[in-house]
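Suppose a colleague, Dr. K., hands you the sequence of a protein chain of 377 amino acids and asks what its three-dimensional shape might be. Before reaching for any lab equipment, you can write down a predicted structure in token form. Begin with the sequence itself:
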Amino acid sequence: MDVKANEQTKPKFAVLGAGHGGMAMAGHLGIMGFDVRMYNRTEERLWGVKARGGIEIEGEITGFGKIQAASTNIEEIIRDAEIIMVVVPATAHRFIAEQCAPHLKDGQIVVLNPGRTFGALEFKQVLNAKGCSANAIIAETQSFIYASRAIGPAQARIFRIKNSIPLASIRAHRIPEVLGRIRCAYPQFVPGDNIFKTSLDNIGAVFHPALCILNAGWIEDISEFQFYVQGVTRSVAQVLDRVDAERVAVAEALGIRALTAREWLYLAYSTAGKTLHDAMHANPGYRGIMAPTHLNIRYLTEDIPASLVPIASIGDMFKVPTPTLKALIHLGSIINECDYWQEGRTVERLGIVGMTLKELRLLSIGQSEIPGQEVQR
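The predicted structure, expressed as tokens, is then:
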């Protein structure tokens, strides 16, 4: 069954994930008058939404967003959805792909919010491995559109909606089709060229892990401090600059001109400065965002395996040195007593090891298939 609706109608949305981001997105879509259904793996995050029939939003957006259904049954939630918004940590993309695989239909659009690095690639690979033959579009955003927090069982606060969010699909020629359907809800989404561009413009890779690791003592001392302001001294900013330079160099090896962190701050928040330190301190959107109180947090558990690891891994494949990225991967693994390199999105796990630049570029525009047999459990 093809679920693509008439272009004049509002698309039906499914939001997969009921964390900070999923609550904000589902509630805002409801306020905007869209038909929204919500999935979460566990029931406990859904009871408040079910009881109230929606989500109360405060902050930059205020109002009550009606939710048509909330369930742990993913088939029920995505059955009639035209646009499926995946709003879970990147480390759960594989699980969500496995759950969606038997139920996707032709014409559906799946958007990872965000994909982090190579999220759409991994998602499509899992669908292939599960034998999913639906002609669905798999897309990803370069970053999450909201700065938000869930503040209750059916309440969320939206601190800020970003100005411009690049979006790309695995078949790059279908990006206009995705934007044509989704912009009635999100005019902030803009063409992201291809999935390698959105993946390597992943600014969370620059800011999150290094800030946590370099401020580990302060975080574990349970001292309250503003994460992106007090946590970014000039010395810390020098490390962020080096992480940024290595990310940009890996992108260049793939023929991609990645945004620098300073350029991204200007596009996303309209803030500028002579240095990255100055630009971050000039951003009013960062004021009041307090640091985490522990280090078992997605800034490490998600951003290292799903951001730093794939960038460093593809850097190795194309002989681009990434010593700072690798140092952060190593230190983060020690801090959380794990092996993020083993867990992460390496080129081996993504099934792209040994591919030439030409083969990767063809893959990004849909002229080459993503192998499914390489999926590792």
